[in-house]
Structures are given as structure tokens and as C-alpha cells.
Design a protein that fits this description.
This protein is of the alpha/beta class. It is built from 2 helices and 3 strands; from the N terminus they run E-H-E-H-E.
Amino acid sequence: MAKVDINTKMITLLGDPLKQSFAAQMQNCGYEAAGLNMIYFYTEVNNEHLADVVNGIRYMNFAGFAVTKPKSQQHSCKNSGR
């Protein structure tokens, strides 16, 4: 992993839960291969505090963020009669 310093740009994945995600591994390998001074990491946050976290990100050294809601949707197959 690259050295994190004052110039490192951060990107985080916001959501809850995130333990099943392996996005950080993939992203950080790509940043390192491209020679970018960036780091991707996880921030577990529930919907109640999401707006506060996003607002805080605006004032820090972030290049961006992604939001996921792994538990938010449950799909079911229903016979529509067609």
C-alpha cells in the first residue's frame, strides 16, 4: 500500500453493513498501479447519520465517496399473471 500523507486524496464507501464488500482492495490496487496518491476505505454509517457524514466529507481532503445500501432492498419474484 502506498504511503498516506497530507496530500493523499480519500474516497470512502458509505453504508451499513459493509463487511461483505471488497471494493477497497480493488480500488486501492488500481490506485497503486496507476501511481495515484489516493486511498479507498469503508465508513459504516446508518441512514440516520448519513447526511451528517456527507456534510463533513465536504470539508475534508476527499476526492469523492460512494454510497451503498446492501440491506435496503429485498427483491422478490412474483407472478404477474403474464
